[in-house]
Design goal:
Helix content is about 50%, strand content about 15%. It has about 220 residues and is α/β, with parallel strands linked by helices. The chain has a single domain, classed as Rossmann fold, CATH 3.40.50.300. The strands form two sheets. It has a five-stranded parallel beta sheet with strand order 2-3-1-4-7, sandwiched between helices. The chain has a two-stranded antiparallel ribbon with strand order 5-6. A hairpin with a 6-residue loop joins strand 5 and strand 6. Helix 2 crosses helix 3, helix 4 runs parallel beside helix 5 and helix 6 packs across helix 7. The protein is globular, with a radius of gyration of 17 Å. Bound molecules: adenosine monophosphate. Adenosine monophosphate (AMP) binds next to helix 2 and helix 3.
Length: about 220
């Protein structure tokens, strides 16, 4: 199973990707996480990407595609995956299709998680992350047992620097301007499945499973 998740920041892509990864035994590939890790480690990719992430813009296509190419070089068996946050542009989708074509491992389905902009701002500005284990919380929707502290390791939770309102609004603008042509590309290929991202995590997850099943037939 090779899945791509597309949705604005805060649409639950990460949460659903985590469930799909665990339950369907897939590799998780999150380009946002890979880029943030590269920035923290101050690698060449990280240094190039940082100014873009800081202001909520997309990192350049060639940089992100190179990261994905490296992943494939280092994990030759990367056959079953769920992609969270890649491809983000039509150019990335075309490049990635070419790569998968050479490997004879085409994408099975693209799940579009849709949610309106105001809800995105509410969700993301309340998001908090554990810097040690990466667990994601929300101040009201998924609150830790003790406010501001990770349930798992007692670490003080932080807000990602790009999770403040002005950066979120910039990221939404970027998302809308790149996504229509990306979705058209996958719709034309018959791969796109649309899923509104409201309600419980589990009900959305069950709907996604239904969409994937339907794509198989
Ligand atoms: P995310 O964690 O997926 O919300 O990504 C955080 C940030 O990383 C985005 O706002 C972009 O700056 C950058 N990023 C992640 N994935 C990509 C991608 N496929 N193409 C370009 N930039 C990306």
């Amino acid at each position: 199973m090779r899945l791509v998740l597309v949705g604005p920041p805060g649409s639950g892509k990460g949460t659903q990707a985590e469930l799909l990864t665990k339950n369907l035994n897939l590799h998780y590939i999150g380009t946002g996480n890979i880029l943030r890790d590269a920035i923290n480690r101050k690698t060449e990719y990280g240094l190039r990407a940082k100014p873009f992430l800081d202001v909520g813009e997309l990192a350049p296509d060639d940089l992100v595609n190179s990261l994905v190419a490296d992943l494939y070089r280092d994990n030759a068996g990367l056959d079953r995956f769920v992609l969270d946050g890649y491809p983000r542009t039509r150019a990335q989708a075309v490049w990635f299709d070419d790569l998968l074509k050479t490997l004879k491992r085409p994408i099975d389905a693209v799940i579009q998680l849709s949610v309106n902009d105001e809800e995105v701002v509410r969700r993301i500005s309340g998001r908090r992350v554990c810097p040690r284990c990466g667990t994601v919380y929300h101040v009201t929707d998924r609150a830790p047992k003790v406010a501001g502290i990770c349930d798992h390791d007692g670490e003080k939770l932080i807000q990602r620097p790009d999770d403040n309102e002005s950066v979120i609004r910039a990221r939404l603008k970027v998302f809308h301007s790149n996504t229509d042509s990306l979705l058209d590309y996958y719709r034309d290929k018959g791969l796109l499945c649309e899923q509104p991202s409201y309600g419980s995590v589990d009900s959305i997850y069950q709907s996604i499973l239904g969409l994937i099943q339907a794509k198989k037939h």
